[in-house]
């Protein structure tokens, strides 16, 4: 069986944990993973970014283990930091819970450098039979139809892998006509990719903590960490900014500080400051 699984970015529960190709779940979903998945099956993950749906990664299944059994293996404990494993190690969860960990093959699984847009055109090629009624946007229709896990056929896997291959090979064609929103999304993602790979541009000895982090007060673009464990909230703005951008950053910083109990610095990367707000910004 192959699966299409939705997820959201949560600071205190980073799962799926893409950097180690692990994913944990519990209850009915855990039982399904253990019962139905076998080595070599595909699991695709999708989420919302900037008001659209994107496929961001896929795992080729290596194995699915009860978390209670996984934590008995010292090699697994040493290598994997999935929150389900950490919860068992801390005693927050016990062997009485239906809880499993899916491990992707680290060689054949993949995090997409440029996420694949999950739009109507792609959806129509798949066997998901998604309806697009009047009065609903593409994103709303796709979101409603894929809020729960969906099974993918082998043909669906071929289509998705080919779409990913084409995206990586061709990039954005000069003949492609893009909307303003699409151009903005592409540029923002490229900036995020660039900063993620070059955090030293922001400061010395920085590393990526989280990217596109969903919070109750909004979505943080990038969260970096210095060698002392302090956090830096990075917000990307393609145009000149005003008071709203500062207020937004302050909300994010307060939430991160309250959540982590760590010192937080805020950085806005932008084109400039609107003239009406320059004096105000100098007082910050």
Can you give me a brief rundown of this structure?
Helices cover about 35% and strands about 30% of the residues. The protein is an alpha+beta fold.
What does this structure look like?
- This protein is of the alpha+beta class and 284 residues long.
- Strands 1, 2, 3, 4, 5, 6 and 7 form a seven-stranded mixed sheet that branches. A four-stranded mixed sheet has the order 8-9-10-12, with helices on both faces. A two-stranded parallel ribbon has the order 11-13.
- The N and C termini lie far apart (55 Å).
In sequence order, what are the helices and strands, one letter per element? Answer: EEHEEHHHEEHHEHHEEEEHEEH
Taking all residues together, what is the mean pLDDT?
Answer: 88
Content of β-strand: 25-35%
Structural class: alpha+beta
Number of helices: 10
Amount of helix: 25-40%
Unreliable stretches covering 5 or more consecutive residues? 172-178
Our Rg estimate from Cα atoms comes to 21 Å
Strand runs, count:
13
End-to-end separation? 55 Å
**Shape estimate:** globular
List strands and helices in order, with pairings.
Elements: E1 2-6, E2 22-26, H1 27-36, E3 42-49, E4 52-66, H2 67-70, H3 74-79, H4 83-90, E5 99-104, E6 110-117, H5 120-125, H6 138-145, E7 150-152, H7 154-170, H8 180-197, E8 207-215, E9 218-225, E10 231-236, E11 240-241, H9 243-260, E12 264-269, E13 272-273, H10 278-282
Parallel strand pairs: 1-3, 10-12, 11-13
Antiparallel strand pairs: 1-7, 2-5, 3-4, 4-5, 4-6, 8-9, 9-10
């Amino acid at each position: 069986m192959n699966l299409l699984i939705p997820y959201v970015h949560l600071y205190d529960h980073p799962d799926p944990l893409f950097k180690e190709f692990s994913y944990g779940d519990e209850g009915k979903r855990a039982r399904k993973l253990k019962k139905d998945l076998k080595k070599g099956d595909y699991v695709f993950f999708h989420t919302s970014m900037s008001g659209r749906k994107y496929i961001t990664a896929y795992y080729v299944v290596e194995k699915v283990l009860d978390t209670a059994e996984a934590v008995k293996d010292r090699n697994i404990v040493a290598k994997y930091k999935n929150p389900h494993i950490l919860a068992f190690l801390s005693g927050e969860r016990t062997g009485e819970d239906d809880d499993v960990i899916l491990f992707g093959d680290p060689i054949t699984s993949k995090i997409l450098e440029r996420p694949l847009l999950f739009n109507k055109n792609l959806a129509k090629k798949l066997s998901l039979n998604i309806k697009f009624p009047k009065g609903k946007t593409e994103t709303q229709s796709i979101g409603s139809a894929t809020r729960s896990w969906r099974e993918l056929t082998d043909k669906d896997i071929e289509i998705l892998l080919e779409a990913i291959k084409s995206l990586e090979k061709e990039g954005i064609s000069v003949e492609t006509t893009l909307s303003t929103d699409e151009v903005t999304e592409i540029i923002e993602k490229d900036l995020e990719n660039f900063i993620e790979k070059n955090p030293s541009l922001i400061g010395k000895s920085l590393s990526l903590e989280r990217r596109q982090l969903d919070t109750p007060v909004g979505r943080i673009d990038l969260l970096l960490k210095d060698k002392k464990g302090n956090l830096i909230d990075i917000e990307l703005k393609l145009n000149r900014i005003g008071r709203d951008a500062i207020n937004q950053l302050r909300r994010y910083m307060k939430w991160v500080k309250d959540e982590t109990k760590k010192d937080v610095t805020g950085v806005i990367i932008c084109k400039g400051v609107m003239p009406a707000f320059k004096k105000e910004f100098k007082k910050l």
